[in-house]
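Design a sequence for this backbone.
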């Protein structure tokens, strides 16, 4: 079964084709970052307009890469949320229309499920069950994953997402948007122990996160410093270390609480090298990540999640039908749009 995936929830247009027999056949990504960097953040209307320009050409390119025609597709998966409404509507409208025209199913995919399943595109793929740490610009989530679609949120950020805190701290230190990768690079030049930042919400039980205080701590340290290049590096390192150690500590707690031995990490911040080093050092735990290019938003994870959902649906028995010899009028409900 071959499923075309369309990702358009934010500032990346991602298109891919996943084949349940042969794996990932092709993927293409267009990042709008250069366009938004000028404004210091994503401008939703510009994002939607650019998705309109890029989606169809990228679909054509991906089909050509995979040497397929639209008639060879068995389903179209599109990101239905969470994300920017206008941007989501572009992918949904194109995905649904194409599916209707081809007479194949359109599968609405949750963007976070896409991230969560993205390490399953790798070899070896993690087996269910596992604990998942989802770290992106919009979310910080710890999830107990029992199987496909069986998710229990164990903890989440009560304020800024970790990627957002990286970006805001980077901005304060004069780095371009999105600053996470720049801050990570600067941290490599920092002097260890020059500054030690607090690890928010680690001295009390629970699996929720809070990162906005860490960002404020970074700001106060910056304002009290000489504000030179070495201060940028030292503050970057102190911020990154506190954020990572907080994430690692909560992961350990979540694994213990659920008695899982597998940890799956995904989302933009999972590209962070220091985070990977810290998590890989955990004893008796197998850690899985998506490849670098699939840490951020991409079409492959949407095609994959869509294919898994469609495959599971196909396995369900053909719905039976009932007639009702007795059917009181007052059990009827108004018609609903699906
Ligand atoms: O998953 P993603 O591409 O988009 C969202 O759905 O949010 O995540 C983007 C986030 C941004 O905040 C970006 O700064 C952060 O991931 N990020 C990083 C690194 N690479 C990307 N943060 C820290 N270290 C990195 N190496
Ligand atoms: Zn994302």
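Sequence:
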């Amino acid at each position: 079964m071959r499923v075309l995936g369309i990702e358009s929830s934010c500032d990346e247009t991602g298109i891919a084709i996943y084949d349940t027999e042969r794996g990932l056949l092709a993927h293409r990504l267009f990042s709008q970052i250069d366009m938004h960097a000028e404004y210091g953040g994503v401008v939703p209307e510009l994002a939607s307009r650019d998705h309109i320009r890029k989606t169809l050409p990228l679909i054509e390119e991906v089909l050509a890469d995979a040497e397929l025609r639209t008639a060879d597709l068995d389903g179209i998966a599109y990101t239905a949320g969470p994300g920017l409404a206008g941007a989501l509507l572009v992918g949904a409208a194109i995905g649904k229309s194409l599916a209707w025209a081809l007479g194949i199913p359109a599968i609405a995919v949750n963007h976070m499920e896409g991230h969560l399943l993205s390490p399953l595109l790798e070899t070896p793929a993690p087996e269910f069950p596992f604990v998942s740490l989802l770290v992106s610009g919009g979310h910080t989530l710890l999830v107990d994953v029992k199987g496909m679609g069986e998710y229990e949120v164990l903890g989440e950020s009560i304020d800024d997402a970790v990627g957002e805190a990286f970006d805001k701290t980077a901005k304060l230190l004069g780095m371009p948007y999105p600053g996470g990768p720049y801050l990570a690079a600067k941290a490599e030049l920092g002097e260890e122990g020059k500054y030690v930042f607090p690890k928010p919400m680690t001295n009390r039980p629970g699996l929720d996160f809070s990162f906005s205080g860490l960002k404020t701590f970074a700001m106060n340290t910056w304002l009290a410093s000489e504000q030179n290049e070495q201060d940028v590096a030292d503050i970057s390192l102190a911020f990154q270390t506190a954020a990572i150690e907080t994430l690692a500590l909560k992961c350990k707690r979540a694994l213990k609480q659920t008695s899982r031995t597998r940890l799956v990490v995904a989302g933009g911040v999972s590209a962070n090298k220091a985070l990977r080093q810290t998590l890989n050092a955990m004893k008796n735990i197998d850690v899985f990540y998506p490849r670098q290019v699939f840490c951020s938003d991409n079409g492959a994870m949407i095609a994959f999640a869509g294919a898994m959902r469609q495959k599971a649906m196909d396995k369900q028995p053909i719905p039976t039908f009932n007639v009702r010899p007795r059917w009181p009028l007052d059990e009827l409900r108004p018609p609903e749009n699906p």
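DSSP finds ten helices and ten strands in the chain.
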